[in-house]
Write the C-alpha cells for this entry.
Amino acid sequence: MKSSGIGGQAVLEGIMMKNRDDYAVAVRNANHEIIKEKKQYKSLGSKYRLFGLPFIRGIFSFIDSMILGMKTLTFSADIYGEEEEEEPSKLETWLTEKLGERFEKLVMGLTVAISIVLAVVIFMMAPVFLSNLLRPILPSVFWQSVLEGLIRIGIFLGYVALISLMKDIKRVYMYHGAEHKCINCIEHGMPLTVENVAKSSRFHKRCGTSFLIFVVLISVILFIIIQVDTLWLRLLTRVLLIPVIAGISYEILRLAGNSDHPIINLVSKPGLWVQRITTKEPTDDMIEVAIAAVEEVFDWRAYLKEEFHTEG
C-alpha cells in the first residue's frame, strides 16, 4: 500500500473527494445522472503557517473538514432534492438580498459552531456529569475517571450504531464504503474500474471514523492520568484539553495512513472495527459516482505509473 494523499467524504447520494486544494463532489440525481462540481478550498493550515504545525494542525484540520463537509452536503442536498425544492421564506429572501454571499457564510459558520458546541456537550461534558452521579459509590477519582471514559465510549458507539438504522444514513454509509474502496484500489496499484473497486477493501486507516475513535480513546487515557477532584475543574480540563487531544489524534492518523508497521496496524484496529458500522458494501452505481469524483481531482493513471510502474 502506498498513500495517495487523497481523501473524501460521503454525502447524500454522492461522494466528495479532495486532493490538496482541489475538491470535487459527484452526486447522482433523481434522473440517475451524475452531477459533478469541482472547486478549490484553502485549508486554514495553508493560509496561516502556525495552524499547519504538527500537533496544532489537528484541531484546524477538524474545523476544515466540518466546513468543507457542510459545503458539500449542502450541494448534494440541493442536487438530490432538486425536484422537491421549496420556495425560500420571506426572511431568507430578505437576508439573501441584504447580505448576499455573506448570508451563506454566516449560516455555514453558525452551523459549524453549533455542531462543535453540541459535540463538546454530548461527548465531553455529559460523561462527566453522568459519572459524577455515581461518585458516592466509587472508591476514588481514578475509578470515576475510568467510568467517565467508559460512558464516553458508550455514547459514541451508541450514537454511531443508532444513526446507522436510518434509511438515508445506511445509503450514506454505502457511499462511504465506495469512497474507501476507490482509495484502496488506487493505493494498492489497481486501475480504477468498477470491477477493481468492488473487490477492494471498504476499510481504510486514514478515515474520519478512525480519527474520532482516536479522540475518544486518547481522551479516556489523558483524563485518567490528569485527575481532578472538583466537578467544575473536571469540566474545564475536558474543554481545555480538546485541542491537545485533537492534535495527538491527527498525528497518529497521519502516521497510520502512511505506515504498515505492525504496531501502527495494531493501534489502527479500533478505528477499523468501528468502520464495520460506518461503511457498508456499495452497489456498482455508487462506485461509478465515487470514481467520477476521484477523476475530477486525481490523475490515478499517472499515479499508478509513477508509484507502481504500471499502466492504468
Summary: The beta strands are 7-11, 14-19, 22-28, 34-40. The first helix runs from residue 44 to 47. The two ends are 17 Å apart (CA to CA). The mean pLDDT is 90.
